[in-house]
Write a structure and sequence with these properties.
The protein is an all-alpha fold. It is built from seven helices and no strands. The longest helix has 22 residues, at about 105-125. The protein is globular, with a radius of gyration of 16 Å. Mean pLDDT is about 80; it is low at about 145-154.
Length: about 150
């Protein structure tokens, strides 16, 4: 796909594409895949409408999402602690999924919102000591690939 001609995320149909691509990568990922496949036993076709509602509400305020997004993550964390590296990998895959297909303000907002959500979940699950610092001193995740690229570039 020619990314210079990429369009922005514009609604539910685009979110469906993003989420299917993201979860395909996440389920197959050796670090975070087991949370979805082994621990939660996530059925994508059941999960997708709810998570699409969540993201449609988060980005466009057009869906009616009333579920507790924290509860399933707390249950996963109780079964197997989710680390900062796990959340960092989630952010990395989320950003790569969006960057691979979309460009524009909604795509940027989706990436930023994903990082904020991951950080908030991690802090809530791991407690006050979960705060992560980027190299510039701001709070957030540094995607694992960026660390690998930085270490190999030197």
């Amino acid at each position: 796909m020619d990314l210079s001609a990429a369009e922005d995320i514009s609604g539910r149909a685009d979110l469906d594409v993003v989420l299917r691509r993201f979860y395909t990568a996440a389920f197959a990922d050796p670090r975070i895949g087991p949370f979805f496949t082994e621990i939660a036993g996530t059925d994508l076709e059941v999960h997708l409408p709810r998570i699409t509602d969540f993201w449609e509400r988060a980005l466009f305020r057009t869906a009616d999402y009333r579920s507790d997004a924290f509860a399933p993550h707390a249950a996963l964390h109780a079964a197997r602690a989710m680390t900062a590296a796990d959340f960092g990998r989630w952010v990395q895959l989320w950003r790569a999924t969006i960057d691979g297909r979309y460009r524009g303000p909604n795509a940027e907002r989706a990436k930023a919102q994903g990082e904020r959500i991951a950080l908030a979940l991690h802090q809530r699950l791991a407690g006050a000591d979960a705060e992560l610092l980027r190299g510039d001193g701001t709070v957030g995740f540094v995607p694992l690939a960026a660390l690998k690229l930085r270490s190999s570039a030197g």
